[in-house]
Write a structure and sequence with these properties.
InterPro entries: AMP-bd_C_sf (IPR045851), AMP-dep_synth/lig_dom (IPR000873), ANL_N_sf (IPR042099). It comes from Paludibacter propionicigenes (strain DSM 17365 / JCM 13257 / WB4). One of its GO terms (molecular function) is medium-chain fatty acid-CoA ligase activity. Belongs to the ATP-dependent AMP-binding enzyme family. By secondary structure, the chain is of the alpha/beta class. It contains eight helices and 20 strands. The protein has two domains: 248 residues, ANL, N-terminal domain (Rossmann fold, 3-Layer(aba) Sandwich); 97 residues, GMP Synthetase, Chain A, domain 3 (2-Layer Sandwich), CATH 3.30.300.30. The protein is 24% helix and 31% strand. The strands form four sheets. A 13-stranded mixed sheet has the order 2-1-6-5-7-8-9-10-11-15-14-13-12, with helices on both faces. It has a three-stranded mixed sheet with strand order 18-19-20.
Length: 353
Amino acid sequence: MRNESIRLDGTLYNRSNLEQLHFTDEPEDSWRNVIYHFLQNWFDDSDFILAHTSGSTGKPKSIQLPKQSMLNSARMTNQFFGLDASCVALLCLPASYIAGKMMLVRAMVGCFNLVAVEPSANPFENLRTFVDFTAITPYQLFHSAESLRKASVHKIIVGGSPVTSKLEQLSKNIPSELYETYGMTETCSHIALRQFNGNDKSDCFTILDGISIRLDERGCLVIKAPHLLTDEIQTNDVVELIGRDSFHWLGRADSAINSGGIKIHPEQVEKKLEGIIPFGYFISSVPDEVLENKVVLVIESETYSPEQEELLKSQLENLLGKYELPKQIFYIPRFVYSSGNKVLRKETLDECK
């Protein structure tokens, strides 16, 4: 049964009054009109919603998501967090991406009030109401940490990119329960969660009820999720299974570097470097005649002085194994970003060469 109404900012909308959400004096791609167009598509007779992947691992692509799968996913999240008609949730992500779309579907399924605000780096700065649940990105969490120490927000899911150790440290004194999500557009948002603050803090993801997981021959995660109405979903995420329902995320198979016959996961190297580089950075590789691929470090900064680079190289030698150690350092004033504010590594590295 498809949900045909939603309570937004205290007003109940359905097919009959949905036009009230159409702001004709704003561009059609304004944050409010994107919400309107999603609901317009949701209330139509199609069984599918058009969604777009973020482009963080390649070119963005369009996919058709069954509305029933989105409803099933929303029910799982609402059940896990105890969300019902008595709750208030906050939408502060663009409804053009799956995370924002699923907040709208959760509100429809749970019959709770959804307060919508313009997506920004700190959506909690002027928040004047208690919020039971919301979803944000790591970028928003970084810029909102101080506001969240004062705001009344019960539970927050954080997704879109990995939560770093630095961000975990920054979140220590935030009273809200904070959960890192694991999922993708194809799974209609998350299928696993990891609380990273408070007494129940964990270092591994735990799958939601009804989900099962296994590894393929590459050590990549394979997801069986009956609510998605599909066969198994094959990922490119290399993980370490912890029992039957938990896992550590190690990195992506398609970003792994084969250097001299040694496999290196850039994400694990980057984690070791947290705190020593005060700028954006990532680990990648370039072709090498001897090693096949050599590890390189790319920093979002003007070129370091010789003294600064010598100090950095000394720190790298202390923190990294000999195979992980970058053989070259590239500097670029600004990384190349996707429309979803994710670093496009290949395009950025191409500009460095």
